[in-house]
Automatic annotation (TrEMBL):
Residues 118-221 bind DNA. Signal peptide: none annotated. It holds the Pfam family Trans_reg_C. This is Transcriptional regulatory protein, C terminal. One of its GO terms (cellular component) is protein-DNA complex. Gene3D superfamilies: Winged helix-like DNA-binding domain superfamily/Winged helix DNA-binding domain. Residues 118-221 form the OmpR/PhoB-type domain.
Amino acid sequence: MSVSTAYAYIIDSDPGMALSLRHLFGAICDVGAEIFQDPASAVAASDGARPPVVILGRVADREDHIAALKSAGFPFVMVIDRRDSAQEAERALLAGADDVIGFPFSLRLLALRLRARVGLLDSPEGLEILQDSENWDDGAYIASRAGLTSAEAQVAHILISHAGEIVSRDELSYAIDHRPWDYGDRKFDVHVAKIRKKLTAVFGEHITVNTVRSAGYTLTIDEMGMQRLMR
């Protein structure tokens, strides 16, 4: 995917936050997102094509960068206020930010705010995604720690949302590709094998993915794994 086709630019020097936000857009909302460490790189990469959303996190001289992004034609800039203070939010809005969200926040809250402000997930299918919200933040943490690719994170998100249950290949195909699974297509087998290897490397036996013959896959999180997620 080229940068110009991204739905969102994530500008944040904190890699953990940036990866969690990319998980929200890519794995959950199924739209493109690109990560930048500073606003200047985002402006240079856009090449005149402005994405609908910019999420501006931890950067130096934030107010100056907000003004520069708005002057450059970015239509919607949301600022993450890590101090969660009225004064910081006021300064960001005075500089031209379109919205401010205080940290910490849930990924679902951010998605709901973006739905109200710019129409993200504003469809019947999007409403179904918003209602399936139990493990969004757990999924982002797991994907970030394990270094899952966007495609792997999409599969993992569905498995995590149905932890302890069997998820069929057909269910994965409808959720990700919006069509029935083609018998013999091993795409999900390949993704699951890579997910299993990466999760084992990071979480050991505490988060496991198993293939259930002729049925699908199941992801299990044991008590120790749950404690790590409740960090």
